[in-house]
Amino acid sequence: MALPFYNYYSHVQKDQNKYRSSVWPGLYVSAHERHIKASSPSAVTALSSAVYGGGMIELDRIFNIYVDRHYRCDDPPRDVADLLSEWQEQQDQCAGLLTAVRLEHTAIQEYESDEFGLLCCTTAGVSNAARAGSARTVFDAAGNEMSNGTVSQKIGKVSSSTYTPGTINIMLWMNGRMTAGAMVNAVQTAVEAKAAALADFGVMDSENGLPATGTTTDAIVLAVSQDGVNKPLISYAGTATVMGAAIGRLVYDTITESLQAAQEWKERNNKQ
C-alpha cells in the first residue's frame, strides 16, 4: 500500500515525513503532527471545493488538517485560518481541508505519461457516508436541519451536524496543461471513481443503508501547473481519455488504500 507517512506517525521512523514527487519537480508532500502539507515551487491554477480556499484560485500549498471526529464548529474557515497563523503559514494562495481520518492513512500514488504527470493524495473516512439522490436529513444554507423536505423544529438554530468530519479529501496535482473545462471534467471523473471505490468496498449510507456515493463533507482540490511548452493542451478528462483513466485509477486506488488501512487499524485495536 502506498502509505508514505505510516512509519512517521507510528514513530517507527520519525524522519520519514517528506514525499517528493517523481512527476512534478519541486512538488513535495510533508507530514506534520496535525496536518499533511503539499507544496509546489510556485503558484499554480487550482479548482477547489475546500472549506478554506474554495473556487478557482491560485495556490502553492494545500493543507489536509486533522480534527477530532467530535469536532463541531460554525465557522471551519476561521479555524483553518487560525491554524495557519499558528503554524506561521501565509493565509493566501492556499487551500485547507479538514479530516477526522488518522493521517498515517494518507495514500499517495503517481502516474506519468508524455503528456502530463499526476499525483493523487487522499485520506478517506466514511463515518458520515451518504448516497446522492436518496432521501436523508439535509441542511439549508443557514445550517438549519431539514427532514423529508420540511424544516424541523430546529428552524432558526444552526445544527452542529452541518459539518461532520469523516470525509474523503482528495488532492490532485497535475503537471501539464489543461483548459478550464477539462479541469471541471477531471473533477467529475474523480467523483465517479470515488463512487466506484466506495461501491466496491461495500460502504453504505449511514442513514438509510443504501450504497454510498461519498460522504456528506467530501472535498477535492485539483491543481494544474499549466507548464510545458512541449506538452499538449488537454481539453477533455473523461473516462475514455488518458488523463481521465489516470485520474480514475489513482483516485480509486488511493481511496481503497486509505479505507483498507483504517479497517485494519480498527481490527487491530478492536474498534467499531
Automatic annotation (TrEMBL):
A Pfam family recorded for this sequence: CbiZ
Protein name: Adenosylcobinamide amidohydrolase
InterPro entries: AdoCbi_amidolase, CbiZ
